Amino acid sequence: MKNKTLKRLICGLAACVVSLALFSFKTVSPNGPGNPADSSFRIKTIIVDAGHGDRAPGGGRFSPGAGGSYSFERNVTLAIAKKLQEQIEKEMPDIKIVMTRTTNYDVPFKTRADIANSNHGDLFISIHCNSLPNRSIR
Ligand SMILES: [Zn+2]
Fold it and tell me: Is this structure's pTM higher than 0.90?
């Protein structure tokens, strides 16, 4: 009698384990459209964001970023962003590039996000570079 109960318990647990294995996982591929793991997904729009910037005439935000001995982050990021834009356009002409700023003037964070979202950016590259006061650090 006791063995029969134990046998039923074991069979019940085995049925639960098998059921869990069969029915608890998705049988449909999670790789639908828009998923980077999907082989049909491709980047169509890249947002290139040059970090920081000067205060616009008439006010606004001033975000110089890191300062080196002969340059400021805001200028370096803009130069890198423009070179990156040129290179992507040359190497991948099918991809649309949208810059969050092309002038020296800073763009508020919300505006940068709005630019990315309104252009349906697939990839957002925000460029920053820091400096260190100690030149011996490598
Ligand atoms: Zn920065």
Answer: no
